[in-house]
Predict the 3D structure of the following.
Amino acid sequence: DTGVSQDPRHKITKRGQNVTFRCDPISEHNRLYWYRQTLGQGPEFLTYFQNEAQLEKSRLLSDRFSAERPKGSFSTLEIQRTEQGDSAMYLCASSFVNLEQGKLFFGSGTQLSVL
Amino acid sequence: SQKIEQNSEALNIQEGKTATLTCNYTNYSPAYLQWYRQDPGRGPVFLLLIRENEKEKRKERLKVTFDTTLKQSLFHITASQPADSATYLCALDTSNYQLIWGAGTKLIIKP
């Protein structure tokens, strides 16, 4: 399977706990994006990396959210002190800049439920 | 502020007919626009991209138009099939290959 993979597919946690999600992009892609999506809405941009550099982070993103992409390969998204409002689908996508004008390849997402 | 609007209500179409979905935007001049399909519990899947200097793009049963004067894109599925039932999202580029997304339109194809 050469697509974008995300782990876990589902995560249930209690309010106040920390959670970490992993994304493995398509290997030759140099850009990696994290989005959040709630029911009935389009994906909401969180952050993106070009290679290992985090180039942009949403101004709406709480300081409880942090993302890393060591060595420009896989990425992790951590949410600290989770709140019920963090419940959503977290989507990872990758692309190759300068090819296909930023066409994105998405993973299946991690569905987070905060109780 | 930049705004993208898609039909918020589900679109019900009889199998075999053409489904037409609308994407309108304001306060923006994108260089290109993309359409994605999303099934429940899955990530979006890329379908078509159309550039600002292109009026129409086709791929098999799919057709996209882009009217920069009206600030509107139309997405057509001809000879629709129940397997085409899904949510369809439009997305517009910002600077540096960033995308902003509509909320999507749920399409239901009835046998």
